[in-house]
Design a protein that fits this description.
By secondary structure, the chain is mostly beta strands. It is built from one helix and 14 strands. The strands form four sheets. Strands 1, 2, 3, 4 and 5 form a five-stranded antiparallel sheet that branches. A hairpin with a 2-residue loop joins strand 9 (158-165) and strand 10. The radius of gyration is 26 Å and the shape is elongated. The N and C termini lie far apart (86 Å). The model is unreliable at 213-220 (pLDDT under 50).
Length: 220
């Protein structure tokens, strides 16, 4: 393989990586570009196929790929590759105070360069129901590190325990012994006085994960 062919092999490998990354991330309408940065060390020809592996791909804007020519006269060369990636991602439609829960009308999709962003949000529904760790401004790109799940169950408050099986739903009152966000597992004392582990499903609502519940009244 001629030396001048090697950057093209690296570019093709980097492009395949970025395309797989964009697909796995669920990016909406991605547009991609890849540039191999010329190195200062001269390249040599290789008498066999050159293999390319990714060394650091945490940020598309600056990735490292290693090209290797095996054999006694082989060589190893590191390339810097810069990818330009844009996609339609979630941004704030309006200002929102810290701790406020995002609703559908608070989020919209806009095209932005995300080459230097590793935690953008492609689906607005992934942000709806979350709350900002700080105040969020209109037009700001939403990032996973900026959001947290709001506390839906508070320690000591009354909660509704709902158990569902096929078409049957049974519910009873309980008291939360822990605080939790959606999806968290908390301890709940049911109306019979039994402590169970339950998963938070909504505001003051949980579902049992450790024991079945019944609608029978507390014993005297």
């Amino acid at each position: 393989m001629a030396a001048e062919q090697v950057p093209g092999i690296v570019e093709a490998a980097a492009r395949r990586h970025i395309e797989r990354w964009a697909e796995a991330a669920g990016l909406s309408e991605p547009q991609l570009g890849v540039t191999v940065v010329p190195g200062s060390r001269p390249l040599a020809a290789c008498g066999q196929a050159v293999t390319v592996t990714a060394a650091d791909t945490r940020l598309p804007s600056r990735m490292r790929f290693i090209a290797v020519c095996s054999g006694a006269a082989g060589w190893r060369y590191e390339f810097i590759v810069r990818a330009q990636v844009s996609a339609r991602i979630a941004v704030m439609a309006s200002d929102l105070a810290a701790g406020k829960v995002l609703a559908d009308e608070d989020v919209l999709l806009e095209r932005h360069d995300i080459s230097a962003i590793s935690d953008s949000i492609s689906d607005p529904q992934d942000a709806v129901g979350m709350s900002g760790k700080r105040a969020l401004r209109a037009g700001e790109i939403l990032r996973k590190t900026l959001l947290s799940s709001p506390t839906l169950v508070k320690r000591g408050e009354l909660v509704r325990i709902v158990a569902r099986q096929e078409q049957i739903e049974v519910s009873m009152a309980g008291e939360a012994l822990d605080a939790g966000a959606r999806g968290d597992t908390v301890r709940v004392r049911n109306a019979n006085g039994t402590v169970i582990r339950a998963r938070v499903t909504g505001a003051a609502t949980v579902e049992p994960v450790s024991a079945p519940i019944t609608a029978s009244p507390p014993s005297e």
